[in-house]
Amino acid sequence: MQIQTLVWLIPFPPLLAFFLIWLFANRSKALSHTLAIVLMAVSWLISLYVFLSAFATEHFGKDVFASSVPWLPTGGSTLNMGVLVDPLTAAMLFFVPLTCLLIFIYSVGYHNFGQRLDAHDVQGAGSPAHNGVEPMYSRFFAFLSLFAFGMLLLVVADNLLMLFVGWEVMGLCSYLLIGFWHGRNYDDPKKITPRQAAVKAFMTTRVGDVLMMLGIVYLYFQTGTLSFREILYNEEVLHHLATTPSYVVGLSVAGLVGLLLFAGAVGKSAQFPLHVWLPDAMEGPTPVSAMIHAATMVSAGVYAMARMFPLLSAGWHEGGPLTPPMMAMGIIGSFTALFASTIAVSQRDVKKVLAYSTISQLGYMIAALGIGAYVAAAFHLITHAFFKALLFLGSGSVIHGVEHGMHHSHEHIDPQDMFNMGGLRKKMPVTFWTFLIGGFALSGFPFITAGFWSKDEILADAFANGPLVFWVLALSALLTGFYTMRQISLTFLGEPRTESAEHASESPWTITTPLVILSFFAIVAGWVGIPAAFPGLGQFVSSIRLGVLPFNFFHEFVGGTLLEQPEALPFDPFPLAASIVVGLGGLTLGWLVYGWKPLKSGQADPLAKPLGPIYTLLENKYYFDELYDFLFVRSTRWFSEVVVYQVMDKLIIDGVLHTVARVAYAAGNFFKGAEKYTINDPPDYLAKFTQWIGGSFRVIQTGRVQNYLLIVMLVAIAFGGVYYLMLSGWVK
Amino acid sequence: MVPLNWYLILAAALFCIGLFGVLARRNAVAILMGIELMMNAVIINLVAFWRYLQPTQITGQVFAVIVFAVAAAEVSVGLALIISIYRRRNSVVAEEMNLMKW
Q1: Contact status, residue A287 vs residue A173, Cβ threshold 8 Å
Q2: DSSP state of A679
Q3: pTM for this structure?
Q4: Are residues A555 and A449 part of one domain?
């Protein structure tokens, strides 16, 4: 079979799984998860084969796997549907199906497969206090499969329209999955419920999606095609786009399209100012959080930006002034990275810390793309997917363990609050060690972990191209180390702070196996990107050959995606030292504050006192939810209530309609009267007259033959008489 | 020879007697008898006209014979009807035969 045909097949097994579960298998929980996992594994194997084939091809960047068929003929041109595997896609194909598959397996354990259905459990309630199997188990796997389909479609798409289709499929699935426990309610009215979180996520990302769609339409309008190959790998088209002025003064077409596409990525990858949906999306089940926040949806935004990088940077050359989209990405990305990591410092919810950390790391990648560090961004995207999936799944395992403890202790506590944990190191050793690896990778523990290499590469690029971005990113890296250590200390170190934590137990193998596999990649995935210029180690790993490429193939491999292979940076000790210092420094600071003297039960966060009002500000996420609530939600409600409902609807539209109705009613009444006297009444009177005549003549119809005969005789005599008179000449 | 008018006057008288019977009698049998008289008056007329106006042709006699046959058939049907009604209603009074009256 040709490799192009195989690429076509990658997204479809999960879609098949979705339909099979939805239509046939939903009554059997075991059959549902088997279908989902097996078909996902098929997808993974095909992807792996495609990745390895790509890997074995020399100069793969010039000789990509691509095929397309006509899809929508639109008058003069035709929209093609096609697949494209270039080095960037191949790298995505390595980690996306793999993490998806691990998350699928993890979900089996997370939803307590094998336990009895809890008698008190209702659909969508998400019962933390009981350990029964999830009632909507099959539905969960169906949704996950559809989600995986959306992501894989987006990855292999060779044009923006197909990418957008996958993008929106994921938007829908994220809505369905965040609101999966739709029946859940909280006592605290300020705490957002899964229903509200789902709507919030959907609406917020929609803002970006609409702008992105405008960008796609504008691009199509300008070039007549949406194919990546025809736009991104064509110097003439890029040059034309970069030099044609657009509607907006001072922006070229490439600039405007780039900014609009970036708006889509801002929504999807939860960048400031559309970041608000992602922390609330934590209301979904934890595998969903891992799926959305690690492997798939949020990285889709960064992937789309990396994919469109030649367009975004059209007109830019190394060392030259940045294009407007790159400028926007650099500013928003680095601001988001710092901003989100400050919030993460004060969060109590184990998953929310990770959510803000994700926002911050995505900001890193966006900022890296903004300063032109294309390969570093793609590299961080992949390492981040591994260690963040690991951290989310680990936190899910922690929550699962604490919920199990709650089942014993009959306490009513929030199982996600880190201040209710502590001491889980001994209760859940596998989770602890894997979480530790993930956390160290996130904070960039030097030389070993994947996060260090990718983050170091971004920092080195930033130092060379945008010193301000470098300092902001370095500061947020310091905070990353700090909040990661805070999270690890609060969760795993010290003594249990509640009885539930005391009774927590290790999760089943379906949960721990994915953790172990992911922690392997959270370390190893970084080694493939060790810069060749790195003293000692660089030369060593470059000398190991894997087929046509060296062991640290990432830069050469992914860099080949671009028309002009980016130059590897010369070695510079300062950013390296900085990334070691901030990574280790953050971890050490965190250890000093939280790990040195573990918190006792009921003790407040030691940061709360010295930081004072700043801590409250951080804890409330800079009041962005409240601000948006005031700016958008309330004003929209006011607008709909007063302007739309009271004025436009009741006054204007209803007024016009009522007037029309009254006029029509009066006219109808008039015509009704006219009709009565002209058309209706005369036939009625005619009928009555006829009836009257008939009634009058009825009496002569006696029914007696003799009477009739008598009349006949009399008439005959009368006629006879007349005849006789006429014959006689008396009557003329 | 007796003139034609005499025959015609006899036939007219006979017809009027029959007509009176038909119109005035209540008994259905009597009405039927009246009809017979009227029929006979007609036959007298036919035969008389034949004899006096066209004695060379046979048509008048044939016509008379046909009327006899019709009269016999009519009487048999009429009597059968009357007997049938009498069996059901125990009466031969014409006015009481009003089953199909409105």
Answers
A1: no
A2: I
A3: 0.75
A4: yes
